[in-house]
Amino acid sequence: MRPLGRIIVYGGMMAALVYPTIGAPSASPEAAASGAFSTTPQEPVPPSRIDIPYGEDDAAIIAAMPDLDLPAIMQAESPHELPRLNFTNAVAHGAAPASDVTEVHEIVSELALPDTLLLWSGDWFGTKLRRAAQDMGVKLSPEQLVALESMAVARSVNTRMLLTLAKLKDAPARYRDRQSWLKWLYLETSRVRDALRPYEATAQPSIRFRDGRVATMAAQTRNAPSWALTTSLGAGKTIDETGASVARFSLLYADVFGPPTKTEAQAPASAPFLYKPYNVALTGRGYYDHTYPSVDNGGWPNVPGMRNYLNQSNVNYDTHDGDDLWMPYGSPVYAPVGGSILWTDGQAVLIGYDSNSYHIYIGHLSRRDVNTGAFVNRGQMIGLSGHATVDHIHFEVRHNGKQIDTMGWYGGGNDPCPGGPAPAARYLGCEPSVWLWADEGPPNSSDTTPPTGTITSPGDRTQTSDPAFTVTADASDNASGVNRVEFYGLYDGSWHTLCTDSTAPYSCAWNADSIADQAIVFTIHVVDNAGNRAMDPGGYRTVQFGRVLTPPRGLSITDTSDGSISLGWQDVEGEDGYHVYSGVWDGSNWFFVRVASLPANTTSFTDGPLSCDASYAYQVTSFRGQGESTRGESTVGKTDACGLGPVPRAYLPLIAR
């Protein structure tokens, strides 16, 4: 067994303690430091910073963590008040043999996972979440469920994802005492926050598995949920075990909450909707930081400094993810909207608005007058203001789980959050902010609003064998007008400028004859006549380009037992191999995941162990390089009647190519 690396703890009583993993000597600090993330302490050092190689086992990390105080996590005012789990590459980039390296998308298969999977809980709190836990078979004590909800709220992480991970890892049973359970929750939510943080454009994070294999995440095409799932489910596991766990995660999640691939993000509100939660004169305030609004970032060095909504830097305070409204202790606090009380604790409330796409968090209350499950009207008193460093309340709004500034951005150019020099370097935990206060107008400004736009063709996640592409886009600007639309393509591992069009309708003709079969990612930038630039305003469009590849024909069930189903099909010409997909019925559709990748010339496969007396659907594709055929035919098989009792479903590991 190869070592995964070592855990290094800085700060406090645990300074300089080293926790080696079981096995051969750990990789040297020099090798780890030469990767994308430095393991060298940065000043100022938080009370406890723990450097953790990607792939380290959960139990080893939890053993190295200091004790946690949940109220302190809920009320944290600074990143230095929280322990920082600093995830690092377990092996220097390029140091592992090429035969041992694969890409994360090979493990996560074809799952196109949206950011809402990591961040948005909707209304899954309280009784609704408890029932979901029962449906999933997660045995949580009431105290464990309360801690899970509170940690999810504090760190803006999807309660449903945490619950599914808890089931897969048997975490409630493994970490029964309060401290170990809090540490496990903090570890999993830290992996989510790490997946969202800014990465340098040239960074290529890597995880080393227990069998020595290495998986990397290409910075230009990063998918935060895929990386978070891989680092969580790959902790202390082999690459094959990780692939099987990812497939199992998708099925568990789909069975209770719906497919994890479903994009649940909702459009922003069409007009301001917030009303002041106070009726006293404010004595001061702390502003939302547009450079990196995340109190758990630990002062990440590539986005330093404070920038409020007017681009002022001489204000409170760096890393703040909301507004601090300074008012006398004990002042009445009112509901800023009408909505449901999704969650409460002793000092805070979470209000859901607009189909719960907006979560409004109000903290530092000295008294709370509403309970979970209640509906409040706008202007209804919900409690009294409290104290944390100074007398104030913390007011934070999240949309689709992402942080936003209620006062928008009026500092010129594009909102720095999300920002960065390239798509890879962006902080994925926030959305561009707009003015949300209905009882007060925004500040006077010239044209500082970026234009809008989106790619209209080709469609996302489509396939083509034609090398002649025509990319079209819509763009608009409500003030100075659109100046130009710039078209970009990601292929052969880097971004390329394809063309620029200054006249509507905007389009770009480009030919892929000179490149190999691969996935091509298209995006646009829109620039208005005031110089405001909207980067990737409509997201990305991924097209699988490949010279014609046909799916296998004659797919059929050749044999069944009470624990397996055997398939057969006809071989095709020119393939590198086959992907086998298995589906379960979610009540309205078959939900498919890849369960096996097979070598060329294979014409059969046996899936198992499976539950007895159960139906499964199958599809088989052929692949060559990065290209994959359409799925073509489907067939449904049913296992034989139960003999010795049902066998839990265990998906075969995905084979990394």
Describe this protein's structure.
The protein is 17% helix and 29% strand. The protein has 657 residues and is of the alpha+beta class. The protein folds into four domains: 252 residues, no CATH class; 142 residues, Glucose Permease (Domain IIA) (Distorted Sandwich), CATH 2.70.70; 94 residues, Sandwich (Immunoglobulin-like), CATH 2.60.40; 83 residues, Immunoglobulins (Immunoglobulin-like). The strands form seven sheets. Strands 8, 9, 10, 11, 12, 13, 14, 15, 16, 17 and 18 form an eleven-stranded antiparallel β-sheet that branches. A hairpin with a 5-residue loop joins strand 6 and strand 7. Helix 7 packs parallel to helix 10. The longest helix has 19 residues. The radius of gyration is 26 Å and the shape is globular. The two termini are 22 Å apart. 47% of the residues are buried.
Structural class: alpha+beta
Identify low-pLDDT runs.
Answer: 1-5, 10-47, 645-657
Largest sheet: 11 strands, antiparallel
Q: Cα-atom Rg, whole angstroms? A: 26 Å
- Beta strand %: 25-35%
The residue-averaged pLDDT reads 82
- Large-scale geometry: globular
Number of domains: 4
Distance between the termini: 22 Å
Domain Fibronectin type-III: 551-642
Region (Disordered): 440-464
GO molecular function, one term: metalloendopeptidase activity
Protein name: Fibronectin type-III domain-containing protein
